[in-house]
Amino acid sequence: MTVNFLAGVFLPVSNLERSVDFYTKELGLRCRGIERWSESRAATLFTHPDKDDYGMLCLEEKTSGKIIPAPKPFFNLNVSGVEALHKSLHNRFIRVSDLQFWDSPWNTHIMFDVYDPDGHPINLIESTPKESC
C-alpha cells in the first residue's frame, strides 16, 4: 500500500452556513455544497479551484455538545500574499495572531494563525524556496 496524498481534514462546527461563509469568503476555499451525513449536515471545501479531490476540508455541524478548538493548528494552508491577507483580515476585525518570519534550510517562511467562527486556529503560511547550492 502507498499513501497518495492527504485526502481531507475534518472539523466540527457549530453553525455550518456561518463556517462555510468564513472559509469561502475569507480564505477563498470552494464549497461543493451542503449535504446530509448520517447524523448531521456537512460541507466539503476544496483548495483547488476546479479539482474535487485536491485539498479537502470537511466541516461537520455538531448540534449537541460544545465545540472545543485545539490550542494549536492541526493543519496549515499554503497561501500567496500572506502579509496582505493578514492585514486584510486584521482590518476586518477577524482574529489573527502576529506574523511570524522564520527560515529552514530549504525555505523562507511567513505565517500567522487565523481563527474560524468556532475558534479553530488555522495556520496560513507562505514559503519561498531558497536557491539551492
UniProtKB/TrEMBL annotation:
VOC domain: residues covered: 5-127
Residues annotated as signal peptide: none
Pfam name, any one: Glyoxalase
Highest taxon above the source species: Bacteria
InterPro entries in the cross-refs: Glyas_Bleomycin-R_OHBP_Dase (IPR029068), Glyas_Fos-R_dOase_dom (IPR004360), VOC_core (IPR037523)
Protein name: VOC domain-containing protein
